[in-house]
Amino acid sequence: MTGKTFSREITSPIDLVQDAQSPARNHLAHTTIALTNQQVSDLQNICETITAPLETALASRDWWPLTMHWALAGEVPTRAAAICRPTSTEQVSHVLSYCNEKRIPVTAAGGRSGVCGASIPLYGGVILDTTAMQGVVALDDESLTVEVLPGTFGPDLEAHIQSLGFTVGHYPQSFDIATVGGWVACRGAGQYSTRYGKIEDMVVALEVVLADGKIIKTGGSPRGASGPDLNQIFIGSEGTLGVVTRVWLKCHPLATLERRAAFGFATFEDGLDACRRIMRRGATPAVLRLYDAPESQRGQGGDGVVCALLVLDEGDVASVTASMNIVEEECLATIGCIPRDIETVERWMHHRNDTSALQALTKKGFVVDTMEIAAPWSTLPAIFNATREAMLKVPHARSSTCHLSHSYIDGACLYFTFAANPPADEVEKTYVALWDAGTRAVLANGGNLSHHHGVGMNRSRFVQEALGSAFGVLVAMKNSLDPQGILNPGKMGLPLPDYLEAAQWP
After folding, report:
1. Which residue ranges does the chain devote to CATH 3.30.465.10?
2. Record: fold of 1-254+461-490
C-alpha cells in the first residue's frame, strides 16, 4: 500500500518570555559554537536554514521541567546558531557531512517532547529539525510492517494506518506531540506496551545517517543471526551515534475486542504481587497500571487508602478473554482485593495525556517531575519505599508518589512523581537534590537509571555509574561512529571532544 504525507507543527511546552527587543538569554554560561556568515550560506544551499534569534530560542528547548522554569525567566539553556530543516535523507547527509568537516555540533530534534533535555543544543551549532520529513511511505499488509519518515507525529501515523485496518499500538503520554524519530532515539514506551511491546520491540529496520554523512540501513528481517542486532545500537542513542531518517515498524490488525477492569488493593505491595503473578501466567493486558494510595486518590477517585489497579486489553477475542480471565483470577485471589468501578479506566483514558497541571504548577513556582525506572519484581517493594522516603527528605519536598506502568515477566517499571515548593532562588538546587536522592535510592536497591524517558542532560551524570564496566563499550562506539564528536555533544555522559569546554550543570 502506498503512503501518505502530513504536515503538523511542534507544540511548545510553555510560553517563552521574549520579544524582538529582548530575545531569550542563555541560562548556561559555557561557550557555544557560532557559525560564520559563510557557513550559514553554505547550509542554506543544502536546505532551509534559519538563524533568527526568536526562532532559534524556541527551537533550543524541550519539555524538560527545568527549561520551563528558565523560560518563565526569559531564558533557554543554550541557543543554537541555526536551525536546518531538511526534507530528505540526502539533505540530512549533506548537512552532517558539512558540519563534520567544520566541527559544528549537530543536535537532531523532532517534536521536542522529551522531558530530560535530550534535544537541547548544549553547545549551540545546528539543530537538525526533522519535522519537514513527515509521512507514511508504505504499508505491507501481509508482513505487517509500515515504513514511516522520522518527523511523523503519532496521531498522523495512527490515523492513516487505522483507516487501513491496522495499528502500531505505540501510545506514549507524549503521543500527540512526539515524532516517530523521537520514539526511536529516546527508546520510548507506550501505555499499551504489555500488549504491543516497547519501541525496541517494534522496530524492524532503520535508515540512519552517520556523522560523516554516510547513509546506512540496519535490520529488515524478522530476525537475524549475522552478528549483533544493529538496530539496537541506534535505538535509545538520543542522536549521539547517528540521525534516524526512516523507520520500519511492526503493525497489527485493529482489535476486535476491548475489555476493561479495575481493582482495589490494601497495599501497593499486594498489588505488585498480583501484577507479578499475572505476568508469570502469560497474560498480556495492554494496560496494567497500579497506583499507590495518594495517586489513586488524586487521579482515580480513591479514598487515600486503597491502591487502584486499572486494566485494559484489546485484540483478538480469544487472546483478550484469556488474558482478562487470568487478571481477574489473580487479583481476586489476593486477600482484601475488591473489584472497582470500570469507569475509573474511562477517566484515565480521558486524562492520560493531559499536561496542563504540570504547566500550571510550574507557573506557580513548584518543582514537579517524574522519574521512571525498571527493576526485577524481587526488588520493586524496596525501591518503592526507599525512593519515596529519600525524596521526601529533601528540603522543600511536598510529595513523592508512585505507580507501576509497564510490566514484564521478570520485572516492571515504577514511575515516581515528585513535587516541591522551594523559594524562587532555590528551584534548580531543589530539583537536582530531588533527582540525586531518588536516583541514588533506586541504584542502591537494584533498579536501573531509566525505563523510557532516556538520559538527555538530566541523567548524564549517572550514566557511567549505571552502566559500570560496560560504559567503555559505549564510549568506543561513539569514538568510532562520531570521532569528531559533533552529534549531540554533552549527552549520555559521553566524553567531549577537545574543542568543547565542559558545561557547568548541575
Report:
1. 1-254+461-490
2. 3.30.465
Per-residue pLDDT averaged across 27-45, rounded?
Answer: 97
Q: Quick one: fold of 356-458?
A: GMP Synthetase; Chain A, domain 3 (3.30.300)
- Residue 335 neighbours by CB distance under 10 Å: 7
How much is the mean pLDDT over the chain?
A: 96
Position 328, amino acid: E
Interacting residues of 76 by C-beta distance below 8 A, sequence separation 6+: 16, 24, 25, 26, 27, 57, 60, 61, 67, 70
3-state helix, strand, coil in the chain (%, to 5): 35, 25, 40
Task: Indicate where the chain has its CATH 3.30.300.330 domain(s).
Answer: 356-458
Lookup result for grid cell 517531575: 369
Give me 12's grid cell.
511548545
pLDDT digits (tens, 9 = 90+) for 156-183: 999 999 999 999 999 999 999 999 999 9
Report the C-alpha gap between 285 and 47 in whole angstroms: 45
> Does position 204 have pLDDT exceeding 80, yes or no?
yes
pLDDT digits (tens, 9 = 90+) for 418-433: 999 999 999 999 999 9
Roughly what angle, to the nearest 10 degrees, separates helices 268-280 and 380-392?
150
Reduced to 3 states (helix: H, G, I; strand: E, B; else coil), residue 353 is coil
* Numbered ranges of CATH 3.30.70.3450 in the chain: 257-351
pLDDT exceeds 70 at position 384:
yes
Class of domain 257-351: alpha beta
Rounded Cα gap, residues 220 and 326, in angstroms: 35
- Non-local CB neighbours of 52 within 8 Å, separated by 6+ positions: none
Q: SS3 of 154, please?
A: helix
Burial level of 361, CB count in 10 A (0-12/13-18/19+)? middle
**Per-residue burial over 477-494, b = 16 or more CB atoms within 10 Å of its CB, e = otherwise:** ebeebbebbbbbbbbbbb
Does residue 69 carry a pLDDT above 90? yes
Phi, psi of 159 (to 5 degrees): -60, -40
Q: What is the reported pLDDT for 334?
A: 98
With b for 16 or more beta-carbon neighbours within 10 A and e for fewer, the 433-468 pattern comes to bbbbbbbebbbebebbbbbbbbbbbbbbbbbbebbe
What values do phi and psi take at 312, rounded to 5?
Answer: -145, 135
Residue 2 scores a pLDDT above 70: no
β-sheet bridge partners, residue 26: 76
68-94 mean pLDDT: 97
